[in-house]
Amino acid sequence: MYLTILTLGAIGHVVLWVGLVNRAHGLGLGRQWVKVLTALCCILFAAVPIAVAAALGRQWTLPPADAAAAVAWDYLSVCAIVCVVAGIQRWRWFLHPERRGALMSNHTAQISLPEAVAGPLTPPGISRWLSRLPGNQALQLCLQEKQLAIPRLTPAYEGLRIVHISDLHMSGRISKAYFERVVEAVNQCDADLVAITGDLVEYDECLGWIPDTFGRLQARDGIYYVLGNHDRRVRKDWLTAALTDAGLVHLGGIWRKITIRHTPVILAGNELPWHRPAADLRDCPGHDARGLPLRIVLTHSPDQFGWAQANDVDLLLAGHNHGGQVCFPLLGPIVAPSLNGVRYASGTFRAANTVLHVSRGTSSLTPLRWNCPPEIAVLNLRSASQS
Questions:
Q1: What is the pLDDT of residues 236-257, one digit of tens each?
Q2: What pTM does this model have?
Q3: Structural domain spans, the chain
Q4: Which end of the chain is more exposed for a tag (fewer CB within 10 A), N or C?
Q5: H-type alpha helices, the chain
């Protein structure tokens, strides 16, 4: 019995503190507060097992020898319950109906950037060392060609082609050449729209990269973006001005009506909880009997899925969670900075008439990925009646 509690308690201890860190990063707090909460959780994550071991001493069997040992066993028991509940919850998420009905097909092509780009993709130091670790996929860019079933899609929108990229995190830890190759790959996709869902630039020094990267993106009907939490690390006015000069359209907090193939489309942005407000869709045209106009919203966090459903959105595009960035066999992702934990780490989801696509991210601040390569997602919209 005690071995079971010890084993489940140890796993539950990890689940508990990682889960708290995940949710702290989804609250929309200021960067300093997030750092403080993360540091506090890390300290307790390391200190509590030491305290438990000290309290139990050599008495690792039940019943507890004294009050301190009783508290230690109580903590382990709570963690064991957390482990069991989290396991059941993850299994329910895996089987949840929202995971079905949206993705019709997914074809993956891999671009090995070290072979496609002349010169180093990471600077000397830790970044280069990390990039060379066995199994690290940080530079193994995937082109994901996906067919998405959209419930109210009319024939006018059939085959609408959206390239979705997210979380580029231009910081200098991965070279400019990487992002130039990303742009080349996007431009070869023959997109109607390019949608960028936040965390574009980390440092002011990288704003000068924008003309040769984002500025060279091509799509028939425009390049649109929203900001993420990491974009608060640079001057917002500088960033948006540079992106505007590069030809990109900022959807933060607004909606606009555009025409694609002589058919109306509503594009909107939701940058909550870091940049307020979200677009107010109460005044934009509602769906008519034919399902027109299509409503597409760009957001950074998939936590806005409920907001999208409440606002009758057809397609919500998000990123932020990087797919977990490190995914373990059977367990999948562990870390995802979301109020929902790893539920929406990446992939496609459907609730009623709203489809959510969550990108794994097209890069990352830390060049370290296992079982979770960066992606460019090419979304081909199809009628749900064909699924």
A1: 999 999 999 999 999 999 999 9
A2: 0.95
A3: 2-95, 98-386
A4: N
A5: 2-24, 31-56, 67-95, 113-116, 126-131, 176-187, 236-245, 305-310
